[in-house]
Amino acid sequence: MIKLIHTADLHLDSPFSMLDLQKSEIRRQEMRDSFEALINLVYTTRSDMLLIAGDLFESSYVTHETLNMVKNGFARIPDCRIVITPGNHDPAGENGIYNKIDFSENVYIFTSEDISYLDFPELNCRVYGYAFTSQSYEKSPLCNEIPKDKSKINILVCHGDTATAIPRHAPISKNDLERADFDYIALGHYHNTDGVHELSNGGYFAYSGCLEGRGFDEIGEKGVITARIDKDEKGKTAFSHKFVPFSKRIYHTRSLDITGCDSSAAILAKINEFIKSEGFDDHDALKLVLEGMLSPSLRVFPQYYKEQINTLFSLKITDNTLPLFESAQLMSDPSIKGAFFDKIRPLLESGNAEERETAALALRYGLVALSGGETSDLN
Question: Are residues 285 and 174 in the same domain?
């Protein structure tokens, strides 16, 4: 039996450029702390193997401090076999980050774009993998048949793209996964996990997701997958797994309807009430999209509301409200107001949030001006 931990996409030393300098450094340190927690999990669970499916480092920004931390962390768990497949953010190669570290003997790194394997006879296991050697890998790594000893536990650890057909980040199709016929395929590249999936051939595959979210495209709890794999004398595999959360901060996206608010104070109060009702605190980063219908004379000030709220680690507010005009009336209006509304309507219904926001603001200004009002009142 093998006890393993599957992780990927740690992106150690990511710059967090969307945050201010103080908070970006906090997040960089928290990512280091999560790595240390990962090492502690390996130690306390006495795991046989740690699989890292690419992008352990953010190579363009990684510091000597972080490299030493990783090296020393791996050395603290000498009984665990650590298998790494370099990804597109930390590719292997002559000048790659992995050539700058003298790892302990329990660390194994794939260095070729061609699939090879590592044999661990004491675990009756072979681990297959390959490496990005540059920032792109434009072929399917599983396009060719991979001979295997079915009496062994066969694992593939790889960084690849199973969702798009763009041949840049090791495109892998569902058919490729089925045909490859591994007992477990540990994937990296996507930072959100949707759990472990069973293949028709009896094997399993999963994206572990990252340890820590870095932005609002990486929402929800992050962590690792732990698994136990055993194979009996008849070649039948027993597999069990669970998700172990790690996130020190959790990113969320929410929408809030502020229809009926008649002042900035009312909007701010509604935002505060919403944050409290959701139970968010300084461990949370929130992207809040304001929606609904407001008077055209009421201007929404996202930056102002953000500056008034200090209960969250990070807050981003987007105004997606629309001016409270009667659409049916405007569509049938024979005057220039109707023509103006007809011209701007496609942008109001755009799938692009930035276009909708700009169009809503333009509609407010335009209709107030056409009605003889003062557009300066909207500033």
Answer: no
